Amino acid sequence: MAVITRYVVEHKGVEKFVTADKKEADQYDKMLDVADNLSEYIEGKGIKIEQSVLEELSIMLSKNKDSLSKLLKGITADVLLTEEKADVVDIEAKKAKKA
Fold first, then answer.
1. Which end of the chain, N or C, is less surrounded by CB atoms within 10 Å?
2. H or E segment and range at residue 66
3. Do residues 28 and 16 lie in contact, with contact meaning Cβ atoms separated by under 8 Å?
4. How confident is the model at residue 29, as a pLDDT?
5. How high is the mean pLDDT in each 10-residue block of the chain (99 residues)?
6. Do 80 and 54 fall within a single domain?
7. What is the model's pLDDT at position 78?
8. Residue 7 vs residues 33, 74, 87: alpha-carbon distances, Å
9. Which InterPro entries does the record match to this protein (predicted)?
10. Domain match, 26 and 1 both
11. pLDDT at 90
12. What is the dihedral angle through the alpha carbons of 6, 95, 63, 84, rounded to the nearest 10 degrees?
């Protein structure tokens, strides 16, 4: 019999993420906390958005906080998207080398 440690991230009573890596679970939990803060901020500014759209938007912004930070510093979206595509290609090339 094997003992398996699992880390479960719950958000508002709903299981959102399960992993065997504590660091990964902590990162995901922090991302959800940032998303909650973003949702509150957006609502506090008086912007009326359907709750499901607000949740999806805030999670997307939270997951991409580094890119968002660059955008706020003046980097254009097309430059940023080109960089992100190059990063994906690089990651896929590294995976192919390992296989």
1. N
2. helix 65-72
3. yes
4. 94
5. 90 91 94 95 94 94 91 87 75 69
6. no
7. 85
8. 17, 38, 29
9. Uncharacterised_YebG, YebG-like_sf
10. yes
11. 67
12. 180
Domain of residue 77: give its range.
65-99
Contact 52, 39 (CB under 8 A): no
Identify the pLDDT of residue 89. 64
Tokens for 20, please give them.
């065997």
Same domain, 56 and 99: no
Q: Are residues 55 and 95 in the same domain?
A: no
Which H or E run includes 94? Answer: helix 77-98
Of residues 39, 33, 37, the one with CA closest to residue 54? 39
Six-digit token pair at 59?
Answer: 């999670």
Residue 83, helix vs strand vs coil:
helix
